[in-house]
Amino acid sequence: MSPSFTDLTEEARIAARALLEYGGHLVNPTVRLGVTGLARAGKTVFITALVHGLVRGGRFPVFEALATGRVAAARLEPQPDDAVPRFDYESHVRALTAERRWPESTRRISELRLQIEYQSRSGRERTLTVDIVDYPGEWLLDLPLLGMTYAQWSAETLRLSRNGPRAVLARDWHAHLAMLDAEAPEDEQAALTAARLFTDYLRACRGERFAMSLLPPGRFLMPGDLEGSPALTFAPLDLSHDAPAKRGTLAAMMERRFEAYKDVVVRPFFRDHFSRLDRQIVLVDALAAFNAGPAAVRDLEDALAAILDCFRTGRRSWLASIIRPRIDRILFAATKADHLHHTSHDRLERILARMAERAIARAEFTGATVDVVAMAAVRATREAMVRQGSERLPSIVGVPEAGQVAGGQTFDGHTETAIFPGDLPDDPNALFDPDSEAFRGLATASPGEVDYRFLRFRPPLLERDKAGVPALPHIRLDRALQFLLGDRLT
Amino acid sequence: MSRRSDQRRPAVFRLDDPDVIVAPAGSETPRTERVVVTPDLDDPALPVPLPPARRRRGIAWGTLFWSAAGGLVSLGVGLAVTRLIEDLFARAEWLGWTAFGLAVLAALALLVVTAREVAGLARLSTIEALRERAAAAVLGDDRTGAESVASDLLALARRNPHLARPRKQLQEHLTDIIDGADLVRLAERELMAPLDAEAKRLVAAAAKRVSVVTAVSPRAAVDLLFVFVTALMLVRRLAELYGGRPGALGLFRLMRMVIAHLAVTGGMAAGDSLVQQVLGHGVAAKLSARLGEGVLNGLLTARLGLAAIDVTRPLPFDALPRPALTDLAGDLVRRTRDAET
Prior knowledge:
Strand content of chain A: 15-25%
Oligomer: heterodimer
Number of helices of chain B: 9
Largest interface: A-B, 44 and 33 residues
CATH architecture of the largest domain in chain A: 3-Layer(aba) Sandwich
Largest sheet of chain A: 7 strands, mixed
Strand order of the largest sheet of chain B: 2-3
Structural class of chain B: mainly alpha
Order of helices and strands of chain B: EEEHHHHHHHHH
CATH topology of the largest domain in chain A: Rossmann fold
Largest sheet of chain B: 2 strands, parallel
């Protein structure tokens, strides 16, 4: 996109703020750590486990600063940004440890400030402030809208909705769309209905059976306080030509609202939060996509590419940190690795690396460091070997959540169950075959015929240490921390 | 779909199902049609890795020569001893018996010494192999390799009482899910850090001793001898520190490796420390020729010590910084200057 006047003023505002913050960071070094991921990827659990581990001194052997005892203490500080909600760490911890249920999911942006007191390798006492910013990955999918016109967006969205399994889900909306005339005079009721049906279609795409990922605009699914406002009451129209819409027509109204959405929702998010990040972790729930089928996997791949195109990556330098803050480390984390036996973790990592291949190459070209890890911020399962006849199945043992269905039975949320989820392929390309029959998922096959089945488990029963503080078990959370923060704690 | 027909399908087993048996690992379960679930224990028995097979490289003529010559010499010695005993028996019976007893004792002692030497050599090559395996595990991020390296390292460190706590900690982490490279780094941080500090101290102390003795010794021959003995002792103590415990032959072999290592890395080390060495030497030599010589000898000893650390340490330097000459000998120069002023 060519830089327009709006873009230039945005850049100027970002630079002005960066300059202001740079002064503060000289005195008090600060890292802004962005945590994102699509819905159900495990953002909230990740932050909760991370903060809990740092504050309570968890078992992080690979996180060098903590393991060698250089971190003296970590504590929560008052949230610095007055306009952003605080991440509700305390109630999330309570949900995990006391009530043994997963915390409420991220519906909006939230922030938490953590201060780490540590001693540098040379023995100097220092503090590092970590601002953890939690925001839904769906909002990132909105950022490409900034470069689109309404007509382009309509065409793109309609093209997507007419392919593959989406066409079935969009049937109602398509029927309504066919009755709409873009040239007709503007009509609030028609717009409302269209927006409602469009939102229903997006929501249906996200369900467990289909697990689609690329569903902009993100606020339609997580409206927050803008629900019902005109900025969220629009839908794509079947526009036959590229000419600008006439005043007073339905198309003109939709276009105006689309622009309003960009101004009210997308730009402020980009300016106030997104452009200020130093480090980023992208949590990806690849297992849900495997559950659903090849279409969902390809959709996730597209969504990841779209997310990564938004990041401003580059090597850290003092000039850049003054004028244009950049992300210098990105970690892709395939979450819920505890749903797999550890012998398959390498394969999961390879699959994620293959999904994000293009984005990783681009980020590395600009000088940023990228890593891929299979992890579980809170480990809900144990591992076991199941012998059935002559076969040995590397399985996991846990308590599936109530209401989950697998192998013809419905779970009550109390029974311990061993599950063999299926073999991930050794060669990740096998999953991305262009012919859509690479494997069978819930979207196309009956539950008895699927190739993979990953259940949702309840949080684990926790061991308590001598002081009665529960320790959250994890898989490779320490490696993620070492990558994201280790170099700032030397 | 035939392409993926070899793939195993997902399966679900309820643990409260009567057809499902939960059996701990290692216990014998009857071969029934029922399903057996074996939960992974918290401390899985780690497999003991076999030492890598040595390659044969044809006939080593040099070895053959030395073996043959050695055989001849031993035969000669044996003959001489037998003759001596016979002569002594001829002279007086009790003298003969005494000589016989002494000969048996000597033979026994020789046997024990040889066995120790062989064991020492074997330990050295184990450490060498361990270092290679650790490097490979870090490079390939190989979990199984790293686990076997860690357990070997624990076995090696078992004799060192100062490592009781780090050993315990590492043992606990062995069962966590950690990647191969990270596990090796963790083992290095836990087990090697205290040893490295001690090694640094040993090298620095040896370097200081050498520099002082060289500076004050009256004859060149004395300090030559002293430097040689100190170097030998230093290498031996470093090897013992890192778990090597070499015998005399092992020490000989170690010394050869250290000197070879010094020759290889000498070029690289020149870059970071030559200027300092020359400067330090120059300044000290201006003040007094003997003092300059002392500083130079000390620096050389320190460098030899660093090479010895590289050779005797069972893990490569990866997570921890490699000690540099400036860490050890920095105060050598400073101290000598202070002494002069």
